[in-house]
Design a protein that fits this description.
Blueprint (H helix, E strand, L loop, with lengths): L2 H9 L9 H37 L1 H14 L8 H9 L1 H14 L4 H14 L2 H12 L6 H26 L3
Length: about 170
Amino acid sequence: MSAEVKTAVAAQPAAAKKPSIVDTFLKGCAKGFKVGIENITPAMILGYVLVYILQETGLMDLLGTIMSPVMGLFGLPGEAFAVLISAFFAKASGCATAASMYQAGTLTLGQASMMLPACILMGTLIGHYARIVLVTGSNKKWHPLLIGICLLDAAISLVIMRIILAAMGVQ
C-alpha cells in the first residue's frame, strides 16, 4: 500500500456506532415528553380555562340556548357545544369536558359517548392548523376547506354515533 493510501484510510472517520434499541427508545421518550409539555399541555389548559370561563360567567347558558337548535339535530343539548369548543384546542380537553358534563348531569352517558369520535376527528384543530397548515405555507384558498373537512367529519360522526347508540338502545 502506498503512503498516500495509508494516509487516506487513516483520515477516514471510524464507522458511526449504531445506537442500541434502548438508546433509541429513551430518545423517543424524551422527545414525546417534550412534545407533551410544550404543545399538548398548553392547548389542554386553554380548552379547560375557556370552558371554565364560559361556566363562571354564565355564557355557557347563553351558548346553550343559542346552539340548542344546531345541537338538537344530533340529539344533544345546546351546552354540548362546549365540548366541541374545548376539543378545538385539545382532544383530551374535549373528552374531559364531556366527562365532566356527564358527571354534572348535563349530558347522558349516551350523549357523552356520542361526543368522543367528534372530539377525536375535530380535536386539536387549532393546534394542528397552526403547526401544520401555516408552517407548510399551503395555499390560503384551501384553509377554510381544511378546517371545514374536520368539522364535517365531526358532524358526520355525531350522526353515525346517534344511529349506533339508538340501535343499541342507549340514550
